[in-house]
Structure formats: C-alpha cells, structure tokens
Amino acid sequence: MEDAEVPGQAEGGVESSGVPPAAGRGGALVERTPTPGGLALVSPYHTHRVGDPLDLVALAEQVQKADEFIRANATNKLTVIAEQVQHLQEQARKVLEDARRDADLHHVACNMVKKPGNIYYLYQRESGQQYFSIISPKEWGANCPHDFLGAYKLQHDLSWTPYEDIEKQDAKISIMDKLLNQPVALPPCTEPIFQGLSH
C-alpha cells in the first residue's frame, strides 16, 4: 500500500479542503477516494495511476461539444418562441384592424335595422357620404346611382365579414357549431378527437 493516497489529497496530488474545485470551461475530473465504500482497493497503482494525456483532451472536447449542443438547442427553442411572438403580434394587429373596420362600418349611414346573417352593400355618394343598402350592384345593373365600395355580412357577434371571406368564415363557424353540439362529457382518452371536423 505504498502508493495509497493520504486522505485529503485529490487526484494529481492537489490538496483538498473539503470543497470540490470549481469546474472550468473544460470540465473537471472526479476526486479520488483511497477507500471507496470503506474498502481498500486491490491495486491503488492501477486504479489511481495517471491515464493517457489524450484522455484529458477527449474529455475537454466532449465538454466543449456538450456546450455547443446546449447552446444550439437553446437557440433553436428561442427561435421557435420568437416566431410565435411574431405570429401573435400579427394576430393582434389583425384583431385591432378588424375591430377598427367593424366600428367604422357600424357608424355608416343606414335607413334600416341591420339584422345579423344578412349581406349589406356599401355605396358612396358624390358628397362623400357612405351608406348601406340591401340592393347589390348586380341588381342595380347599369343604373347604379353611386360608387360601390364593397359588400359585408353582419355576423351574429356583430362583426363584419367582407364578401370574399364569407364562405371561409361560414366554414369556420360550422366547425365551431359541430364542436358545441357534441356531448359535454369528456372522452376517456386524453388525445384530441377530430372526428367529424373534416368536410
């Protein structure tokens, strides 16, 4: 047992104060114990001998590679979050634009009580006044008295849908109606159920 270490000595002969040394950028080796688990080792020379110097290089390379992978992984996750934030910002901008448009359309002159589910046609007089009518430009034909600006459907939540988006919006509402008409009881499985949502 000539080569047995004196307690308090760390690998490489560095004296240990009971506090493990801080790991540098290249990592650190585990401290040696002369009697692990209270048992003396058979051959401290073979178990405590200095290894191949290339092993330390390989260990440093492995730690550096782990740092690179962790950094790349964090970058990928942050990129996904940044894309989600950008998408949410776009959605917020669209919500504000739609709300502004809906408010403006509700203040347009109209001589009738507007009912949800109906399509209204927006015209502008020579004076610049805009107004809603239930008569389409097609029904007017060549005798349309004023400039046609667009057609909108009044939804049941009192929002307005442009004529070109009516079909798409009706399809979304139909899907939501199917979901709302399904039984309220939760299914036994935790996976989402998309049955009946396809056309």
TrEMBL record:
- What GO MF terms are annotated? identical protein binding
UniProt keyword terms in alphabetical order: Coiled coil
Coiled-coil annotated spans: 71-102
Does the record carry rRNA processing as a key word?
no
Q: Which is one Pfam family of this protein? A: DUF2452
Q: Where is this region: Disordered?
A: 1-32
User: What InterPro entries does this protein's entry cite?
Assistant: DUF2452 (IPR019534)
The name under which this protein is listed is Chromosome 1 open reading frame 50
The taxonomic lineage of its organism, from the top, reads: Eukaryota, Metazoa, Chordata, Craniata, Vertebrata
